[in-house]
Amino acid sequence: MTKHGVFRAVWRIVNALLVAAIALLCFASAREYSVRRYLKGFSDAIVPRVATQEEKVEAILDWMRHGPSRNSGTSPGGLAARDPENTLNYRALLQVCGTATNAFLNVAESAGLHVRRLLLLGPDRHAIHVLAEAQIGDRWVVVDPAYRVILRDAQGRLLTREQLRSPDLLAQARSRIPGYPSGYEFSRVAHVRLARIPLAGLGLRRVLDRVYSGWEERFDWSLIVERESFALLVAACLATILLLLARAALAWYGDRRLHAARVHLRWQLGRVVTALVSSRGFD
Question: pTM score, two decimals?
Answer without folding.
Answer: 0.76
